[in-house]
Amino acid sequence: MSTPQNAAKGDELPPLRLHLTRADLVRYAGASGDFNPIHWSDRVAGLAGLPGVIAHGMLTMAVAGRVVTDWVGDPSLVRSYSTRFTRPVVVPDDDTGALVEITGTVADVTESDGVRIARIDVKAVFDGKSVLGRATAEVVLPG
Which residues are bridge partners to 105 per DSSP? Predict the structure, then answer.
């Protein structure tokens, strides 16, 4: 595994395995103000055609971004981060929650005016399937 100081194209970031629980959804709803019942009510999620309560998309995006911030060490070094939501994370009503497995790969390293920039491709998988598409972060690499 590489470090940000010696990052090169193709390097793998240390993977993350996170469990999202209904308690996490409640905390996120309170922090974000997003109290849509598809994030806490199985009945409403079913009426909406969902297989169950789903994690907030922005919560999924945020936890996936941790693979980058944990690796680079300083969140202020992240210049950009974007993704598309491809599939929901269904969170069961139990103490274990939904396992999301997150990986990152250095897709490119460039240098401009003495500043090294890495583009990181992020992958988040739930239940064997990708839940984010085109998830990419751009970070300033520490000297």
Answer: 12, 121
pLDDT in the model for residue 2 = 74
Domain count, the chain: 1
On whether the CB atoms of residues 101 and 62 are closer than 8 A, the answer is no
Tell me the backbone φ, ψ of residue 51, rounded to 5 degrees.
Answer: -75, -5
Could you give the CA distance from residue 34 to residue 28 in angstroms, rounded to a whole number?
Answer: 8
Phi/psi at 65 (5° precision): -65, -20
Q: Indicate yes or no: pTM above 0.90.
A: yes
Written as six digits, the tokens of 3 are 């470090």
| Residue-wise DSSP of 73-132 | S-GGGEEEEEEEE-S--B--SSSS-EEEEEEEEEEEEEEETTEEEEEEEEEEEETTEE-E
What's the chain's length in residues? 143
The pair of structure tokens assigned to 128 is: 């064997």
What residue numbers bound the domain in which 60 lies? Answer: 4-140
| Regions of the chain with pLDDT less than 70 | 1
CATH for 33: 3.10.129.10
